[in-house]
Design a protein that fits this description.
It is globular, with a radius of gyration of 30 Å. The C terminus is likely disordered. Strand 20, helix 24 and strand 21 form a beta-alpha-beta unit. 39% of the residues lie in helices and 14% in strands. Helix 8 runs parallel beside helix 10. It is α/β, with parallel strands linked by helices and 733 residues long.
Length: 733
């Protein structure tokens, strides 16, 4: 029997699951079993856990349906556990180094206890100072073991489940499980402390809780707040049945109703049924108020008295002024110029235009990427919608003649931003843009993340300095209603990089639809436009941006590469869009396609791709054509930029470390050989999950037309998709 069983539910926060699991497996004390609880065998978290289970026999995956919620997941883990003591972690939690060793040492001192309470640290990891709320609750407790009756203020309802270790046989004997529904920690913590006879405390941080920017899901608006009353009723009913002392009962009552009143006074938690909540809470208050209970002083005491008498109107008036002030502050627009600010403020007072869609790509670089692909499909499926693209002044000439646009910073720009029902962007809108109630913001992203993104960049000084304020970045992310992904990897990494309350749409990237809808004629047309000679093998060379360099450097002698690779090879040079200066760099067998407006067209034209660490490899893999990774500075890039996985372990094709190796794989044909094909197949299975030629349709139907999720066309399996044909055969003699 292991000393500890650590139970980790994974629902809803898969992106941080690996951090929680790693923190357990890295413990110096190894006598434990780790029980991740996943929604289903085919859930994204199950794929993550499967890899851990293969590498470590202490990992035992358990399944619990999403309908069971957090309580069901924890209870499923408890039933599977065999350890002497149970610990619970959420995916937002990590065990600090040495945590299990400290628990084992303390339990050796105390002997068997029913509950061992521990301190935990709440870390607002984007900014702010960490806090240790359990330290105050556990202060001045006896040094050894004690009964909860000796410390009446330790009721258990103020401590999360992951702030204690529980003796498994105690829970089984007392038939203690997590109550169904929301606020299950309140019910479980209270019931455990009521039944415990022998407890102890560890005065050190054992669990580090990563606080979500948007707060706990329990703080979101909704009728689930009514369930706090059910948990309160459950604990107080059991306390009365147990004959709890007046002192313990009074403190338990006060702590529970402090939470009830906090919810009743919160302006956003109960947008509907606020009066119902108050009426039920008032009835509950009168039913469970201990005899002789004295209300606290100050404002809290006033709230107690209003709740006891059911005076909803007075209670509502008490919080009304603060709510009005907060709403007024939220409405203030933030453009810099006074005239612009006033104009924008006036526009924000006008009704939203339900048929207006504002698009932007790459901070105003024109008609491109996912926004352009969504717009093209919306023209067919939702012709009643008016579309306006936002562009920088020097890019206005690139917008197709039949596309309406607004120059960034102009009066029209602010007007359409203020009134548009739908706002679609592959990056982010300006800080000054106000998220209006009823508007819908869609983030489409513009690639699959290999390199660290968003707040995950914070620990990389060079990148963090260029990114600027992470608080401002996350304020922009808070405006998103939907975020688009093309594979499960992206879903998990975006969740980590951009934590907010938006909904993830695993629909694929609309810009990649063309890789399955283009024909041989389309490929021939693009090759002609780019000037690729007939019968030549076009190799696209697309290096990524280096944060630690200034200016663009190809990093490769392309003329020498062509000479060594073979006489029929030509190179399509596409620099990162940061370096698009609108002029060609190509000569001879080098064709500079950096300024070409569509990266999708360039990919269609290419017979093979050479890249280093650019996300273009994930998009190009949809074409099922050879990809070669030129990784001459991988170690430097990984250390300075940060990456989410080791590309060298799972590349989409051959890896070349030097210019000579790169030329050799083309000269001998191995770039398109069997090993290359096999590596690409594995890569496509992982990263081409949702791109099937119908991503734009799914987005338009769900976001712009408001169709329910169940009516959206499903993703076509990878084996059934037929990519656009390549221009030439890729097997060399």
């Amino acid at each position: 029997m292991p000393r500890f069983s650590i139970i980790v539910p994974s629902h809803g926060v898969t992106g941080r699951l690996s951090q929680a699991l790693d923190s357990v497996l890295a413990q110096s004390f190894g006598d434990f079993e780790l029980i991740p609880v996943c929604d289903a065998p085919d859930a994204s978290a199950a794929d993550v856990v499967a890899g851990y289970a293969e590498r470590d026999s202490r990992v035992a995956q358990v399944h619990s349906p999403p309908s069971g919620g957090l309580a069901g997941a924890r209870n499923s883990g408890m039933r599977a556990a065999t350890g002497a003591y149970l610990l619970f972690l959420d995916c937002d939690d990590v065990l600090v180094p040495g945590a299990l060793a400290a628990l084992d040492a303390r339990l050796t001192e105390t002997g068997d206890v029913d509950v061992l309470y521990v301190e935990h640290e709440r870390v607002p990891w984007w900014e702010g100072e960490p806090s240790n709320p359990a330290a105050l609750l556990l202060a001045k407790t006896p040094a050894g073991t004690f009964s909860p009756a000796e410390v009446p203020r330790l009721t258990g309802v103020q401590l999360p489940a992951w702030s204690a270790a529980y003796r498994r046989t105690f829970l089984v004997e007392q038939q203690l499980t997590f109550p169904d529904g929301h606020f299950t920690d309140v019910g479980f913590g209270g019931l455990v402390t009521l039944r415990a006879e022998k407890v102890a405390v560890v005065h050190r941080v054992v669990v580090r809780h990563l606080v979500r920017r948007q707060g706990s899901r329990l703080g979101l608006p909704g009728e689930h707040h009514l369930e706090l009353l059910a948990q309160t009723d459950l604990v107080l009913t059991r306390a009365a049945e147990q004959g709890l002392s007046d002192e313990r009962l009074g403190l338990l009552f006060e702590q529970l109703f402090a939470a009830v009143l906090k919810t009743a006074a919160h302006p956003r938690r109960l947008p509907a049924k606020r009066r119902t909540y108050f009426r039920l809470a008032s009835r509950l208050y009168r039913r469970h108020r201990p005899a002789g209970y004295r209300t606290p002083g100050g404002s809290l005491g006033v709230q107690h008295r209003l709740l006891a008498t059911g005076a909803y109107a007075a209670f509502s008036a008490l919080r009304g002024a603060n709510q009005s002030a907060a709403k007024a502050a939220e409405r203030l627009p933030r453009p810099r110029m006074v005239r612009t600010r006033l104009r924008y403020a006036r526009a924000l007072r006008r009704p939203l235009d339900p048929n207006l869609v504002v698009y932007s790509a790459y901070w105003g670089r024109g008609y491109a990427c996912n926004p352009a692909a969504i717009h093209a499909t919306a023209r067919e499926l939702a012709p009643h919608l008016r579309a306006v693209f936002l562009v920088e002044p020097d890019q206005a000439h690139t917008v197709p003649e039949d596309i309406e646009y607004a120059v960034i910073g102009s009066a029209k720009y602010w007007d359409v931003l203020a009134r548009a029902k739908y706002l679609v962007n592959n990056a982010n809108f300006a800080d000054a843009v106000v998220k209006r109630p009823g508007s819908v913001h869609l983030s489409t992203q513009h690639g699959t993340p290999l390199k660290k993104m968003g707040v995950d960049q914070a620990t990389y000084p060079v990148v963090a300095a260029a990114t600027g304020s992470f608080a401002k970045l996350l304020a922009r992310v808070d405006r998103w209603d939907y975020n688009l992904t093309s594979n499960s990897h992206s879903t998990q990494m975006w969740e980590r990089a951009y934590p907010a309350a938006h909904e993830t749409l695993e629909y694929g990237y609309p810009r990649n639809d063309v890789y399955y809808t283009a024909t041989a004629d389309d490929v021939a047309r693009v090759r002609g436009e780019l000037g690729i000679p007939e019968g030549k093998t076009a190799v696209l060379y697309a290096p990524t941006h280096r944060d630690y360099r200034t200016g663009f450097d190809t990093g490769l002698d392309l003329e020498a590469f062509c000479e060594e690779a073979g006489e029929d090879v030509v190179v399509l040079l596409r620099a990162h869009y940061f370096y698009d200066q609108g002029r060609a760099r190509g000569t001879g067998r080098i064709i500079d396609v950096t300024a070409h407006r569509s990266s999708e067209d360039v990919c269609l034209a290419a017979d093979a791709l050479i890249t280093d660490y650019s996300s273009i490899m994930f998009d190009y893999a949809n074409l099922d054509r050879p990809v070669v990774v030129y990784a001459d500075d991988w170690d430097v890039y990984r250390e300075t930029r940060g990456v989410y996985f080791d590309l060298m372990e799972t590349p989409p094709g051959p890896v070349a470390r030097t210019a000579g190796e790169l030329a050799r794989v083309f000269r001998d044909g191995s770039y398109a050989g069997e090993e290359s094909t096999a590596a690409r197949a594995v890569f496509r299975e992982r990263f081409c999950q949702f791109d099937d030629g119908h991503a734009a349709e799914r987005v338009v139907r769900r976001v712009l037309l408001g169709e329910p999720p169940e009516s959206i066309p499903p993703v076509i399996p990878l084996a059934e998709r037929v990519p656009a044909p390549a221009a030439s055969t890729l097997v060399r003699s």
